[in-house]
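Practice problem 4.
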């Protein structure tokens, strides 16, 4: 799958914390959060590569997948991308969220891997829309391949819409989970067959 690195400015990501603000040791399992850009991939990358000294403007994803299916790596997986502000993941274990900064609301960022799909042009810059033309097959293929490299189970793959608490985030719009999981499972099956033969 075609890919390249376009690293975010250091102000737009940070270290993953081992303890929360109270000193409690963190043991959350990894989570994958799916997003969309709402602007062109080029514009989004430009924003992440710009220095933002104000906490309110800092943002990033670990990876972004453009219309052609190219995977653009922005923040290394071991680092904490700033993909979701005030956010909670509701799992079978209960509500999961971590506060790492006493001035900011708890979020899933400390244990999340954030992946964004480039929004199709008919959805760029539009607020309050409920759907758009959707993502390309190349985007679904690359997304499924990327996530298949991890051991994160299906039930810990979620959306920005599902974890967002206060900002009314609705992304990714028009996302076909059935199509995505079908592709993901076929890649994981191939992966396990390849491993059993090596």
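Answer key:
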């Amino acid at each position: 799958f075609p890919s390249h690195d376009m690293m975010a400015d250091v102000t737009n990501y940070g270290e993953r914390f081992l303890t929360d603000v109270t000193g409690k040791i963190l043991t959350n399992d990894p989570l994958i959060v799916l997003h969309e850009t709402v602007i062109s991939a080029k514009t989004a990358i430009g924003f992440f590569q710009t220095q933002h000294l104000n906490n309110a403007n800092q943002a990033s994803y670990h990876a972004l997948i453009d219309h052609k299916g190219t995977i653009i790596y922005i923040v290394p997986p071991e680092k904490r991308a700033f993909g979701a502000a005030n956010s909670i993941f509701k799992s079978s274990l209960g509500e999961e969220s971590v506060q790492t900064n006493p001035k900011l609301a708890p979020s899933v960022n400390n244990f999340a891997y954030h992946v964004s799909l480039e929004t199709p042009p008919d959805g760029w810059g539009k607020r309050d829309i409920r759907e758009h033309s959707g993502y390309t097959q190349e985007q679904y293929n690359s997304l499924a391949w990327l996530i298949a490299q991890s051991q994160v189970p299906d039930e810990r793959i979620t959306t920005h819409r599902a974890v967002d608490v206060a900002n009314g985030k609705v992304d990714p719009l028009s996302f076909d989970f059935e199509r995505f999981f079908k592709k993901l499972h076929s890649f994981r099956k191939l992966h396990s067959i390849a491993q059993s033969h090596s």
